[in-house]
Amino acid sequence: MNYQIEQASLLDLNALRQLEQECFGEDAWPLLDIIAALTFPGEVRLKAVVDGEMVGFVGGDPHPREGLGWITTIGVKTAFRRLGIGKALLEACEKQMTVPIIRLTVRRTNLEAIEMYRNAGYVEVELWRRYYPSGEDALLLEKKR
Ligand SMILES: CC(C)(COP(=O)(O)OP(=O)(O)OC[C@H]1O[C@@H](n2cnc3c(N)ncnc32)[C@H](O)[C@@H]1OP(=O)(O)O)[C@@H](O)C(=O)NCCC(=O)NCCS
């Protein structure tokens, strides 16, 4: 599968809304969060593109003065999973956040994503009980480099 990793912009608003819906359902980001992710200065916003279609997205929020950055969202459309796109997006986002520590939260039951993060060198540092609106626990994962 040929895909490119490219900068995303506000022009991707509708595509990102659809992607968020497909990946996260009722937990998808509200419109304002999506607009923020596509416009806030200093944020990392990268998309994976196949034949002109956005099939994946990653957001990053670097805090250089604190020496850490957050992966804020990552998702790949169902039909394009297990092709290495999620891993490529994660690596590209890490590269753009030139900070020594990267963190993210993930649902405790999201085994696919947890497996991807473990393989990428993330380790569990905390458990946040009932973090998500559904009441599910979150794992705080961290990678030092
Ligand atoms: C998590 C997600 C982004 C992975 O995207 P992807 O493009 O399928 O991931 P990749 O193909 O790059 O896989 C990278 C690694 O993740 C792990 N992985 C991904 N899907 C997996 C699955 N279904 N079962 C087990 N391991 C899996 C594997 O270790 C894989 O490496 P491998 O293929 O060499 O074994 C995708 O499943 C997704 O969009 N899920 C819904 C949204 C989501 O949960 N995002 C994370 C929120 S914290």
As a percent range, the share of strand residues is 35-45%
Order of helices and strands: EHHEEEHEHEE
- Figure out the total of helices: 4
Helix content: 25-40%
Give an overview in words:
By secondary structure, the chain is an alpha+beta fold. The protein has one domain (4-144): Aminopeptidase, CATH 3.40.630. 29% of the residues lie in helices and 35% in strands. It is built from four helices and seven strands; from the N terminus they run E-H-H-E-E-E-H-E-H-E-E. The chain has helices at residues 13-24, 31-39, 85-96, 111-119; strands at 4-7, 44-50, 53-63, 68-76, 101-107, 123-128, 138-144. The protein has a seven-stranded mixed β-sheet with strand order 1-2-3-4-5-7-6, with helices on both faces. The mean pLDDT is 97. Coenzyme A binds next to strand 4, helix 3 and helix 4.
